[in-house]
Each structure stands twice: as structure tokens, then as C-alpha cells.
Amino acid sequence: MVGTLTTSAVSWGLSAAGWLLSPILTKFVNKCYDALGIDPPPHLLCRKQALLGKLEDLQTLLLPQLLILTEAVQQSPHRPLLKQLLQKLRYAFYEAEHVLGLVEYNRLEKEVNSIFPSSKSKCNFKKLKSKLKCASKKKDLIKSLENLEKTVNEAMKIVGLLNQPNISVHNSTDRPNELIKETISKPGTEVIGREEDREYIVNLLQEDIPESSSNAKCYSVIAIWGMGGSGKTTLAQYVCEYVKEANYFNLVIWTHVSKKFCVRAIWERIWESAFKESCPNFSSSEGLQSKLEEKLRGQKFLLVLDDAWSNERISVQEVEKLFAPLSASKRGSKVLVTTRMEETAKILGATNPIPLRELDEEQFLSLLMCNALGDAKIGDMEEKLTSIGKKIAAKLCRSPLAAKTVARQLHRRLDPDFWSSMLNRSGLLNDTMGALYLSYQYLPAALQRCFALCSLFPKGHSFDHDHLVNLWIAEGFIEADENINEHPKKIANRYILELISSSFFQVDKLNSNSYSMHDLMHDLAEHVSEGECFRIESGDKKKIPTETRHIFIVLDMFEEYMDKICELKYLCTIIVRTSLSNFCLKKVELDALFMKSRKLHVVDIQCYVVERVPKSVVHLRNLRYLNLVTNLLDETHNSLNKLYQLCVLYTGRQISNVGSLISLHDLKEFRIGTASGFELKQLEHLTNLFGSLSIYGLHNIKNAEEARTNLSGKKDLHTLLFSWDYESKNVLREIDVEILEGLSPPPQIKNLAIKGYSGKRFPSWILENNDNIKYLKNLELADCVGLEALTRINELSDLQYLSISFLPRLNSWEPLPSKVTQLELSHCLSLTFVCNRDLEVITSIRSSKISQIVTFMDNSLRKNVHGSVDFQFECILEMMKQGNHIDEETLSTISKDLKKCLEKRLDLIFQLTNKFNELFLSPELNKLSIRSCFITERILAQSLQGLTYLTHLTLVDIITITCISKEVLRSLNNLMVLDITGCMLLTLIEGWDTHETLEELTIECCPSLILETSAAAKSRSILKKVILGACMPSDDMLQGLVSLEGLWIWDCPTIENLGIYHLKSLVDLVVRHCPNLVSLRGISGLKNLKFLDVVGCQNFKCFSAVDKVPQLNQLYISRLSLLEQLISLNGFSYLVSLNLYEGQQSEEECEVLHHLSSLDEIIFSQCQLRSLPPLQCLRSLKAVTIDRCVNLISLPDLPPSVQTISIRYCNEEFTKSCKDTSHQNWHKISHIPEKNIRP
Fold first, then answer.
1. Structure pTM?
2. Where does the pLDDT of residue 564 fall: very low under 50, low under 70, confident under 90, or very high at 90 and above?
3. In terms of Cα–Cα distance, which of 430, 393, 439 is closest to 412?
4. CA–CA separation, 551 vs 567, rounded Å?
5. Half-sphere CA count of 764, side-chain side, radius 13 A
6. Which of 31, 466, 647, 676 is deepest in the core (most CB within 10 A)?
7. Cα angle 885-891-896, degrees, rounded to a multiple of 5
């Protein structure tokens, strides 16, 4: 296989350039002549016709010969001649393309000068200068076309030499010229023929390592090996899917390794896969290793190392280092490796690597036909297609990847003639890579270029959708239909879909906007882009080919290769990547690059804070993509707005006069300022904007004329946000109506948000002619203080999401459009949904309940300064002030004002009783959130009737509800999440514990509520997560909640002896600031418990004499005496993290720390200690955190194992001493690699 691949690669470099002889070149020549003028001179017109005729001959004669030459690579004597010809043709094309770009720049410059004219004298000078430049560039373009014509003439002379006897030339129409714009059926994705393999590997994964085993490791390694494309990754994915459903492992971690074996990079990918977050930027590998080990400690995991192979032998030391963070995991953990080499499998620790067997003939044919036919209905053709499919399958060497890739091409045209033409490409079907290459040849020419560019990025790279699309557009790879005015991004989106459907891309399972590429596909991309794309990774010592056009380079190689890069004559792309966040790119380096590489189309430098963008950037007249994050634009903004061909600009700051960039596609936000160059009119001529646009600072507009910006003409925008940023939230300004009137959106708008609007009514494009927003799916209205009604919103028939918040004058409600599935209603004080019977109940209990609430707060919640109840009080006062924010001084007196606030809130309801509303909801609703509004229980119950699709219900700060009946919850037969917060008068919730679909329950700041469980709860509740705060649950309220995995309780004074022995599935348990809690009964039965937090419970005495917690990973406590009890009960065999919170310990109590010899991390948070206890005894300690310990003066001696120390928000003197190199505190931490010290 390897020999075939190498031989084929030689010729693929030739035929891969076939896109030059496609209609792309013809269209390009037409474009060049169009740029020379509408009526070119007769001699140029004749030359144009002659050249186009020759190009047509090349397309029909030479292009098929290129495909034949690939199949007959060994026999052809003309390969060197053809290679030289294509190289000359390519260079001639690129030179003409560059000059055409300069002509286009001059055209755009002329257009911009007409839009933003200077003074008359300057204008006349500019016109003269522009004419001269234009004439000069057109002469250059004519020369380039002459050179291209000369090369085409040479090509025509050798066409005759390439005719080879006994080889048929297939019709060029076999290659589709158009993308499939929509499909009727999808290719199958079923895993075929691997059931026995999966079962065998799953059995191996489930084998436990006996405690008495001589193997000291807590994990074992299993490996699958086989040739590339044989289905190793698919089988591993099949296995992962099965074990996830079986819930055999706590974590299933998927990591792509590939050719470059870099331990740190693999660790980072493990982190991201395991914890679903970006890996933090550790300054050293040791810091990353220790933190990863800490997070994996005690976990039983399956780690998949996919495609682990390397051209260089992997050392035993590298393997030991790679697996070091796994050493503290739970016994029975497994590592599953897929690799192309049996030797690699053994080096990685697999005792008996499993060779992946070939599919038998029948299974392989099923795989091919399943992917080729999918669910298509083909009737009488099935027998004929299956017959041809058998012959194709016989030539694919039983390679599953080749089968899937070829099948995707077969699926596009389900007719026997096309399938036969694929079969007859016998030379290309005889090996896996050949089959993939054949599929590449059948891609449209524009897609071939797009695919080849992907070789720039390393194997295993995750391609972001928007980034890829923007790159293709900037490179000029998007081929638009001359008869259809379509945005390039829409065409590029179809390209993505085509590459996915053809198996060139795979969609990321976690992020549908990210794509990956199989390693063999990446190999193919490298072969077909050879000579044009070049990648430099860490440690590379490679010579850059002189013809290179596209460069990818990592940060640490940038300076070394800088001079060589600047020498590249054809360079049009430079992409630089780094994981170092504090690197500053120097102005002198950029200046050299911009001065010497003037053909650049793409400058993409991420993760940098650029020192300063040099003015030489103005020389990059063909630049279409610029990504340079910088805070220093004062010198360069006048240069950046002269880059008229820019489609994408990311600088981290808004530049002035952005309206000059009339080619711009991406402008995520625009802030209107008072300075020149930041007016709203800058947007008027940016007609190519695509996607989303947020406009801030609308309060800076002084009159309606300034608001005219032709948004309705920007037909490719689908998301808009309009924001006024008034300092006072109660300002009413009639001019805002005229401003919003001028912001009429384009008719295809899908998402619209209006924030801070102070007009009293909607504009005419909503009130009178809402055709402009008839396709609207999502609408958000926030801080619109003047609106009293949502007039005609109910006519938006496609609306699915509606959010209304802080509309203090809104007083009427209309039925929602029938398709609305999500409603968020918040802080609308004048909008009342109440009935008189409910008001009578509230009146009868008002005085007693308010007194009860205030007593509850005084006795419990006021002591909890950091509790979220403060947020609830803030909400109450905010509502009283109709949206005004509360200062810190007011916030500090909230509990004192609580009684007054509640009384005024209730008084307000009776003042508004002259206008009651019914809450009409859409029957399709699946998520409903009501916050800080007036709605009573009968209206709520009536509104919720019939909402059979509702899965999420949130009620926050509703003080007019006293009861939620079981009939209400029973009617919501699909409810999964219930969140009730700040409902001060709520006394009863019925049926919560027996609901058959409810999985998550949150009840916070409901001081009148007493929670109890019924006898039926034991057999019916499926609750997995419960949060209780500032309410009154009974000690036995958790009875029967056997499925519970997470329990959080805070500020519940009624809890004394909490029984948790039956919560066998519990993983996280948090109990904070429950002043009367004495004990947790039955903690010994919680075998799955990993996290325990018992803080601020001053009466909590001890754990039971039989309690021990062998699985515990993290512990938060405020008294070390509790720690001593747990140690005596053998509860710390897996403890990795200890947080001592709000503690004030004696020296005797601190002695207990000596027993924690395996502790990885210790945190001192808000402790009153003046000095920390000795920590040298903690031999495994890796991380120390000191947070808000305001009395602290000195540090203890720390063990050499510590890799990270964080000191934050402590007293100023102590913080300074930790940075003072002459102070003893500094000497105690100077050896630690990673120090994070901040005041």
C-alpha cells in the first residue's frame, strides 16, 4: 500500500491541477477582459475569443488526458513535460489573478471616493491619480493575459503528444459541475459487520483488575491495530457508544493522537474531552500534569487514544509521562488505543494487540450499498446497481473508508451508466488512497481547491465552520453563478455540505459547526496541494518550497522562518497559531512581512496581542482577511480603512470610517460614537454584510436623518440587535420612534433584539406593514420603558422565541403566535394576571406571612452575606423602582427594608386592579419563564392547562402565588425542570415528589414553603437534581428520591437530622448555612459520593460512628474537627482536594493535616488565620490556594511537590510580601513554577 501511495502521489500532483483546465479558468479570463472595459479594442476582442476557444479545447482534450495519465503513471514518457506545462500555466494564472485583484482594488477605490468625496481640489487630484493608476494596472493585466495566452499555446502543441492508444477517454460530463442543492434521501450511517468485534472488546473493557494483581497500575491498555481506513476509529466509536449507554465508566474520554506524538498536546485534548471545557493555559507541563491527575483521581474512565501512530519510535519514557496523570484513577479504568502499527500498540502497553479483521465479502458489499443507496427508492434499478456495486466492491481492497467515500459519489447519481463509469476507473480503484483520489477528482473544481487548502492545518485539527468559509472566500475559491446574485457565504455553506456528504469532512458530535478530517483524507489533501501549501510545526527543520502560496506556522518557529517566508514570491496566505496568551508580535516583524509579501490575501494571526499594526499594511491591496488583535490602532486606523477588498476584519477594536470597507462581509458589532468616523451612516454602503449585526449607542443619534442607513437593503443579514445605552432607564424620548423607524430590517430577518428603546410605540414596519419581519423566529424586547402594548406581535406567524423584560409600562397582553415554543416574561410591573378570589386569599394572609418572612430572614438569611438571597432582595427593590439599579449602600440595608418592600409590592397589585389580563400561551410552548411579574395561582393554573409539550417551567420573584396544586403539575406530563425562586408567599407545592418526568427541582428563597414527601414518592420519583435554599424542608423530605445524583441545601433552618442513607446514586452533596443541622444520617451508604461540602453549619457535631466515605474526592468544611472524625473512619483513601472555608483553627486542630499524605490540592478560603498550618507533611501536594484570608501574615514551608500557588484578595501587606524577593514569604514560594498573586 505504501509503495502504491508514493507512486501515485507523484502523478497526483499533476492531475490535481486539473481544476486549472476546468471552467474556472474560462470564467477567470472573461472576468479579466470585463475588467478592461465594456468595449475593448477590436484586436483585444479577437484575442479574447481566440484564447477562450483554446481554453475550451484544453478543457475537452487535456483534462481527460490528465486523468488517464494518473492511471498510466509508470508508462507515460510525457510526465515531466506535462508537469512543467502545468506549473507554467499555474504561475501565469496566479500572476494574472494578482493583477486582476489590483485592478479590482482601483475600481473599489474609485467607488469609495465617490461615496465619501473630499474637497473639490483634492477630489480632482484623486480622480487624475486614480485614472493613471487604473490605466497602469490595466496594462499590467493585458501583459498577464498575454503571458497566459503564450502558456496556453504551448499546451496546445503537446496535446497531440498525450494521445495514448488503447485507453478510452471518458466523457467529461461524468464529473458533476453543480453542487447538489438538496437531497431526497440520506446515505446510511449504520455500522455494519462489527457486532462480534464490539462485543469482544466490550468484554475486555469490563474485566476488573483484581486488588491482589501484581499489576500496580489501576488501568490496563487494549489496542486495535490495522491499516489506515480499515475501520478502527468506527469500531472504537461503536464501542464508546455502547459503554456510555451501559454507564460502566464515570468518564469516556476521546482523544485524537495521530502522527505527531506530543505528550502535552495529548494531555490538553484529554482535558477538553473529559471536562468539556478549554484546557487552561498552564505555564509548565508539570502544572498541567498535576492538575489533570487531580481531576482524574478516583474516576473510573475509558480513555480512547485514536490513531496513535508515529514515524518516529515512541520512547518508553514518553509513554510513562503520558500515562502519569492516570495513576490515581480508580481500578478498572481502561485505555483503548487504535493504531496502524502493532509495534506502537505494544509500546503503549497493550499486551495482546487486536488485529482488526477484514469484513467478509458480503459484509463489505452491504457497507458499500448501504452508504450508496441510503433510503432511496430505486425500484427496478436495484438489481442492476447491486451487480455493478459488487464489481466496484471487489476493487476496493475491503477498505471501509474507501467504500464509504466511493459510495458517497455513487449516491449522488443513482443510475447504472454513472456507476459503470466509476467502475471503469480501474487503475484508481485498486487501493484505498486511489479510491479516495477518484472521489476527489469527481468533486467540482472549486471544491477541489477548497479541500486542498485544508492540508494547511495539522492532522486532528478541528475546523470551525465560519473560519473555513471566510478563508475560502478570501482565497477567491468560491465560484459564483453569473446569473444568480448570491452571497459567497451561501455558496460556501453548500461546499461544506457537499464535502460532508462526500465523507471528506466529518461533523463533530459535540459541535455541529466544527468538522474533522480522517487522517487518510488529510494525506490526500497534502498530496493534491503539494507545492502550494506548507506547514511548519514545533521542531520542524524543513525547507520551504519557493512556489509555496499558503503557510501555516506555529509561534515558536515564527522568528526562525520569518526571513524565508518574506522571500516567497507567490505567498498569499499566512496563518500563525499559538497557545501562549502573553506573546506580543513586534511591529518590525509585521512591517517586514507586509512590505515584502504584497500579494497576501489572508493574514490570520490568532492568540496574539499585536504590538502595533504598521502603516505598511496599506500595501496589501489584495488583502481580504485580516485577523490581528491589538489595542493600539491610533496610528493605523486610516490605513486599515483603505483595504477596500477586505471581507473579514478582526482587530479587537472598532476602526473609524469602517464604511470605506465596502467589501466587508463580517461586522459583528458597530458602536455609534460622537466622534467623526463613527456615525451610523458608516453602515449605509456595506451591502455585503452577512449573518448578524449588533448596533450599539443609538442614544448618540440626534435626529431621524442620522438613522437612515439602508438596513432593509442588506439582504444577507438574518440577525439584528438595536441598543440604546441611556444612563437613566426611565427617560422617554420621542425621537427614538423616528430612529427605530429608520432601522427597518431586511425582509429575511430571523432574529431581532431591541434594548433600551424609550419610544411609546412601535415603528410602522411593525405596526402597519410587518412584511419586513414576517419570517421572524426570535424576538427580544428589553428595557423598553415606554411601550404599553405589544401591538401586532401576535401576527408574526413564524415566531418561536419571545423574551420580554423590564417593560415597566406594558399593561396589556395578547395571544401568542401559535408556533411560539419558548417565552420569557420578566420585570413587567404594570402587567397583571390576577383574579379577585386569589387577591382575597392574599389579603387574608398578608400580615401574618410578612411577619413570618421577616422573622425568617432576620434569624437565618441576614447572617449569610454571600447567599443568593441578596439577589432576590435586589430584585424586589428594583421592581419597586421600575427598573432602576440599586447602589451598594442600598443593597447593604436590604433585609431591614424587606417588610416595607413586600408591603409596597402588594399595595401595587391593588392599585393595578383596574386592568386584569389573561395569560394566553401557545399550545406548542416547551419552555416558560416568568420573573418579577404579578400572576396569581388560579390564572397560572388556567394558563398551564393543555401545555403538554412544556419541559421547563421557571417562576422567579412571584409574590402573588400561595400554592401550586398537584392538578397543575399533573397536567404538565412532560415537565423535566421546575425552578421556583423568590416566591415569598408560596406555602405549598403538591405532587412534586411523585411527578413521573420531573428530573430537576430548584426551590430557593421561599421562606413560607414547607416541603414534605408523600408515601407514593418512593416508587415514582425520578428526580436527579435538587436545589433547596431559604425554605423549610422537613428532615424526611428526601424519602424515596432514590435517583438523586446532586443535592444542594443552603439556609434551611428547619433541617436538624438530615436522612440521606437511601440516596444510593448521590454524587454531589452540599449543605451550607443550615444553623440547626446536627447530623447527616446514613452517609456511609453513599458509595458514589465524590463531593461533600458542609460549611457554615455551626451546630453540626459529628458523623455517625459507622460512617465512612471511601470514594470521596473533594471536601469543603469549616472545622477541622470534622476532618479528624472522617480520618478516624477511614474516609480519605481517594481525597484529592480539601477546602477549609471560613475556618479559625487552633494549632491542635491543624495537626490533623498530617494524615492527608495523598492530598493534591488545599484551599484556604475566608479563613481568619494569621498563619497557615505546616504543610510540608503533604508529600503529594500539587496546588495551594489562599483566597480572601484578610488576617494572614506569613506562609508556612511548602513541600517541593507544589507546582501551583494562588494568592488572591488577601491583605495588601501580605500580598506585597509574597512578591518581595527579599521577604521570607517569597523565599517559601520561589521554587514553585506557577504563581498567581493578585491583590
1. 0.74
2. very high
3. 439
4. 13
5. 3
6. 647
7. 130
